Amino acid sequence: MIGLLNRADRGRCLSAVLIVQSVQKVVLLLVNEKDKIKKSSTGRCGHPATLQELRDALLDLHKALIDSERAVYETNVGPINSPHHFLQLLSGDPWFAWLRPVSQLIVAMDEALDAKEPLTRDGVDVLMNESVFLLVPAERGGEFGDRYMAALQRDPHVVLAHAQVAKRIGSGRQQA
Prior knowledge:
By secondary structure, this protein is mainly alpha-helical. The chain has a single domain, classed as Four Helix Bundle (Hemerythrin (Met), subunit A) (Up-down Bundle), CATH 1.20.120. The protein has helices at 7-39, 48-76, 83-92, 100-114, 121-135, 137-140, 142-154, 156-175. The termini are far apart.
């Protein structure tokens, strides 16, 4: 069937397949690491730096997604005239609503890192699992999954930021 597609469509199909395969490898790694963590005793986590690194990588991914989505918005709808206008769109326009789960996850990480109580392995695990769900757009589906996959296919900055988040999740699981 791929042989019937033109060269550009074959390239897009191949890119999508490679992205899905890399996401599947990350998920498999995370599932294996999660099993190891469950087998070990829970308690205080000595790796808040790992969560901070993941949070920073997610923040970079969030910025890449916002920049990418802004370009698409301006192409399809029209120019964004000011930073104030852009902030209004980000916070209230349905076009950008699909980005809110990433924003909420970053806020949850900030709250966990700033909490008076020390982080536990379980707490870090919950936040890492939430990150995994963001990395599996094809499996999750829905508006977030569809729009995230589209951003991955159109913007190399999003792909690079995605890879950094996946790397941080993998290294966080290995240290825990």
